[in-house]
Amino acid sequence: MSRSRRAKLQLFRVVTFVLLGAFFLGPIWFMFEFSTRGVGENSPRTLDAWKEIGTYPDLVAGIVASLQLAVITSVGILVVLVPTMVWVRLRLPRLRRVIESISLLPLTIPAIVLVVGFSPMYQWMGINLSDSILTLSLAYAILVLPYAYRALDAGLAAIDVKTLSEAARSLGAGWFTVMWRVIVPNISSALLNAGLLSVALVLGEYTIANNLLYPNLQVEIVSLGRTNAGVSIAVAVASLLFAFVLLVALSFVGGQRGGRRRTRERLVQTFGRDFSGGTR
Amino acid sequence: MTASVETTPREGVEVRLENLQRRYGAVTALNDLSLTLAAGELVALLGPSGCGKTTALRLLAGLEEADGGRVVIGGQDVTGLPANKRDVGMVFQSYSLFPHMVAWENVAFGLQMRKVGPAERKKRAIEMLDLVGLAGYADRYAVQLSGGQQQRVALARALAIRPKVLLLDEPLSALDAKVRSRLRDEIRRVQLEVGITTLFVTHDQEEALAIADRVGVMNAGHIEQLGPPTLVYTRPATPFVAEFVGLTNRLPGTVRRGVVEVRGTELPLVQADEGEGPAIALVRPEAVSIATDGDLAAGPLVGTVIAVAFLGATSRVTVDLGDITVLAQMPTSAAAASPAGTRVRVALRMDPVLIAREEKAPVEA
Amino acid sequence: MMGGRRLSLDWIGAVPFLGYVALFLFLPAAIIVAGAFASEGGVTLINFANLSRPYIVSAIVSSVILSAVTAVGGAVLGALLTYAIATGNPRSTFRRVVTSACGVLAQFGGVTLAFAFIAAIGPASAVYVYLSQHHLDYYASGVWLYDLRGLELVYLYFQIPLMVLIFLPAVDGIKPQWREATESLGGGTWSYWRYVAGPLLAPAFLGSTLLLFANSLSAYATAAALINQGGPILPLQISNAITSEVGLHEPGFAKAQAVVLIVIVAIVSVLYAVLQRRTARWLQ
């Protein structure tokens, strides 16, 4: 490459990164700025808005509910998926493609469409079973399914499930022991991946909760935002920070050497192909 | 029967690289490199990775700018010209062809850049494909062609624009061994037929020796020896050349009074003024012979055959002399008398030898 | 090797998963499709006919326009960013940080994003306060952040990173030899883009734009957080149809709208898959 062309290219790159970097980092920075404003002009920065978070009972209830949902959903999806995926690998290899296609299906179905189908179901459930907000976890598990599947698939692909389980069985282990004490410890990073992704997704979820009229964290943030912008933005920043910390933790819980890069890239690809609109 | 491109063969042009310098940060890739290619000549630049041969080619192509020196093509100083104005044809090691174009479209691309009309350039593209023996493959995409076929299309594409120079950057390195030797001869045939001045870069010394008019052996940014293949092989100018081109025995000895004494035999020196003291004599296997008669009890040149490698007309015999092993190359009939396990006496022919001082060979075997 | 009876026992292992998915994925889908064609009294197309109501038509049109604008805008800006990333050192930390950031930002949407923009350029933001005091009142003719124009800007925040994620592999697949071959054959920068890189990247670019379109069309949360009343786009109309009084009387209406949305998305997905095959063939 000639020197002048290289110079022009570098200029383009610098300009692009600076301009777009400002576009992307700006709103985040301003969220911090907004939520740390003092009262009146030129007053010093303060964390008052943050401290006030605890004084809004609905908001706190929303935080608690979302955290509970996050845990229930991520544990639940793992409990269902891990044995199923292991079982399919061992005994039902022909079902593998089917399971994969089904698991990736929610990526192509917008959440706003899904919730139309959920609506009558949740009305029925509310009357006949329970109207607790925690029933949302059943819906959330569907949203989370593709990401959890991809993460677990990568983790299971890296270990020889067949040999491990056959060895354990031949030594007298029952199926529960095989799952719990042989398979699970060996895919711990994939499990953590799947779990963290699920938590991040559930905490950011708005579409389904709002349209089924359940007050989760994001719903409460919006409704608070109509009256008290500062506090609502503070909570929004908090949830963003929390999700960011989770995703950073994710990049360290990469797992087995090459698997780390591959898992991350597959996840990035998964992210890229999602337009379910669940968090948008 | 392959057709020629045109009735009158193209006249090649002289190409000169003068005092080329190229640095990458702290690393000097080319250090005052000068090379002249005569019209119609095929020069091979041979050397290990990192010796600067590809850099030299890319400077000639105009894909990189030199830090110093000149490039002259056909009497014209092209040093300041970008690649697209230099009228050179280039074949890359891999990924040569555009994947979205069929073979003839690839070949016609250079003509398209020169504003040749569609019908005319298709016609000439087909002619070029015919020249490289791929007449029926015009409508194939790169993925539908084997590696060797892709490189032949790449060659046709480079020649279609009737460039002044043909540049080949390790064109055979990514191919299977069998394909490599066939294609190598094909490239040479086409090059001679078209009469184009050609620079061929490779790390494979067999390739370079087989097809080049002259071979330039490069090391660390400069040319160690430039000459016809036979000369470079039989009379290496430096220890590096001796060890990079062909096989060499490294025999420890002592330099004394204008000769080197190796295990009791005194061998003349290529460089008469070598300093005295311990040295390593570089002896070609062809200069080593074995005999099964005479005193085989003990001695510095007595040992046991540990392997015989059949190479066709010649064979290579490995002899264990106790502290070192020696390679001897001879007609197979002579080797037949000494299979593995035979006690033999080794003799060194009185050819002048080169001396190396380093403990270790500069190039990995 | 295994007898038939053994096989059917193995099947049971998949039942929990399949049962759950049947209940919470296929059942809702069936409800939507069946309900779209139903009304009191049986199978009918009335729900689809009702889609011609002016406010629905306007919502669909606005959705399509919004999605098209943010798809093209996101694609173009995203392509520039992709090119800037791809032309750097492929193994550098900077590149890994930037691509990870794109992964995060592509998912970063909804409520938090809306609030971030409100904080950044909204009526109470430091930027607006400062600029309006200096005679640059950009809300002079209305607070556009809270309507479609605002959505166009805000959606770019996740559209651009999404573009990078899906377009980068294609750009990475462009081999430097093709540029050098073009040059040695006499082509300059313009020729290179016109005859080599352009045609090679066109299917990927087009496919990515389509994906961005579907992504934007499906987005709900950001719009819901920014737009307080009315339903200028289809997802908001769907939401109204489920949650409002009107929706209770016409349960099939929301479902018909949902069917329209999912059909558009499905068509786009198929087109994307076709273009993706072409890209994969050339750029691996």
Please give a quick description of this structure.
With 280 residues, chain A is mostly helical.
Structure description:
The complex is a heterotrimer of chains A (280), B (365) and C (284). Chain A has helices spanning 3-35, 48-51, 57-91, 96-104, 111-128, 136-157, 161-170, 175-186, 188-203, 207-211, 217-225, 229-252, 257-272. Chain A is an all-alpha fold. Chain A has one domain: Orthogonal Bundle (MetI-like fold). Chain A is globular. The model of chain A is unreliable at 255-278 (pLDDT under 50). The longest helix of chain B has 18 residues, at 177-194. The two termini of chain B are 41 Å apart. Mean pLDDT of chain B is 88; it is low at 1-9. Chain C is mainly alpha-helical and 284 residues long. Chain C has one domain: MetI-like (MetI-like fold, Orthogonal Bundle), CATH 1.10.3720. Chain C contains 14 helices and 2 strands. In chain C, strands 1-2 form a two-stranded antiparallel ribbon. In chain C, a hairpin with a 2-residue loop joins strand 1 (38-39) and strand 2. Classes of the chains: A mainly alpha (280), B alpha+beta (365), C mainly alpha (284). Chains in contact: A-B, A-C, B-C. Chains A and C meet through helix 1, helix 3, helix 5, helix 6 and helix 10 of A and helix 2, helix 4, helix 5, helix 6 and helix 8 of C.
Rounded mean pLDDT score of chain B: 88
**CATH H level, superfamily name of the largest domain in chain B:** P-loop containing nucleotide triphosphate hydrolases
Helix/strand order of chain B, N-terminal first: EEEHEEEHHHEHEHEEHHEEEEEEEEHEE
Poorly predicted regions of chain B are: 1-9
CATH topology of chain A: MetI-like fold
By DSSP (H or I, 4+ residues per run), the number of helices of chain B equals 9
What is the CATH H-level superfamily of chain A? MetI-like
